[in-house]
Amino acid sequence: MQSPAASPIRALLAPLLLVLLSLLLTGGTAARAFPLRVLIEGPKPSMMIAVSAPAQLRQDNGSAIDLAPGHWFTVTAAHTGILQLPANAYVLVGDRWYPEGMQFLRFKGGVGAINLVDSETYLRGVVPREMPASWSDHALMAQAVAARTYALTSYVRRKHGPHYDMVDSVIDQVYGGFARYNPRTGRSTILTDARTDRAILATRGQVLDYSKAQGFYRDNGIAGWVRYGQYQLPIPKGRMLSQRVSQMMATSGWNYRQILAYWYKSDVYLLSM
User: Fold this and answer.
1) Is position 135 within any domain?
2) Separation CA 71–CA 178 (nearest Å)
3) Does residue 8 register a pLDDT over 70?
4) Taking residues 6-27, what's their average pLDDT?
5) Helices (H), 131-193
6) Is 128:140 a contact under the CB 8 Å cutoff?
7) What is the CB-side half-sphere exposure of residue 227 using CA atoms within 13 A?
8) For residue 198, is it within any domain?
9) Distance CA 45, CA 108 (A)
10) What percentage of residues in the chain have a pLDDT greater than 90?
11) Which end of the chain has fewer CB atoms < 10 Å from its terminal CB, N or C?
12) Over residues 255-264, mean pLDDT
């Protein structure tokens, strides 16, 4: 049996294309984002936050605290509530800047910070953390659909309970927010990327059938290789996308719909929640 390196994934194109090209997008309405609640910090006794523009923390006790940029504010379990951010503003929690909104909830052990963010914005902080932004466009687009499907599954099933849908680590998906703050220099580094942003926009609202495919993926998610004529085919580990092999597919001419169909055996649908 030839090695994967000796038998490029380009070989998969030939007779399989006729089957894979039958993959269709369905849905007649505009694609919609869905709301997500991502636990990004805590619970802990307290946390320091800052804002990039004037904002207001509306507390659960009915009072409000005005926050100004350039000033730190210490959040404790006595400050539970929702921080409302103006358009294009961000909140710094820990060493990351986050968009849209932040909820502070009391948990056992202190206060937790939950980023209130729509799915398309969330993906901008996920895709470049889960797959190298330098990879091929269609590999990135396949990753965007898989990550969106994973988020949708978590949103619908409420697997973490009533307070949040996901966490920001490999337990779910790595979500890095939009920028990283360096307290030693006082400077921030942008974490989003124009290439992954394009992949997210190009697949906006597109998901797999999450009753069949939950969007799971791994760096190397294959069980091995099998002979297909003079070439090799990857053997999937269930309905799970192998990121490295998907990159091989993309560089060999597969488009993202074909890549997703191979791994998940699911159509792609346009979300219209």
Assistant:
1) yes
2) 20
3) no
4) 36
5) 137-157
6) no
7) 4
8) yes
9) 10
10) 75
11) N
12) 96
Average pLDDT along the chain: 88
E strand segments, the chain = 25-26, 35-44, 46-51, 55-59, 64-67, 73-76, 81-84, 90-93, 96-99, 101-107, 110-118, 166-167, 179-182, 187-190, 206-208, 217-218, 222-228, 231-236, 241-242, 268-270
Tokens of 228: 């297909």
Q: Are 136 and 247 in contact (CB under 8 A)?
A: yes
User: Against a cut of 0.85, is the pTM above it?
Assistant: yes
Q: Compute the distance between CA of residue 24 and CA of residue 197 in angstroms, rounded to an integer.
A: 23
Using 50, 70 and 90 to split pLDDT, how confident is the model at 211? Answer: confident
* Cα-based distances in Å from 117 to 32, 224, 251, 256: 13, 38, 33, 26
Residue 7 within any structural domain of the chain = no
30: CB partners within 8 A, 6+ apart: 205, 272
Q: Which domain holds residue 186?
A: 35-204
- Domains contained in the chain, number: 1
User: In the chain, which residue ranges form alpha helices assigned H by DSSP?
Assistant: 17-20, 119-130, 137-157, 194-202, 243-251, 256-264
Is residue 95 situated within a structural domain? yes
Sign, Cα dihedral of 86, 172, 218, 13: negative
Q: Which residues contact 238 (CB under 8 A, 6 or more apart)?
A: 216
DSSP strand pairing (73-76 vs 101-107): unpaired
Strand, helix or coil for residue 251: helix
**265, pLDDT greater than 50:** yes
Contact status, residue 240 vs residue 143, Cβ threshold 8 Å: no
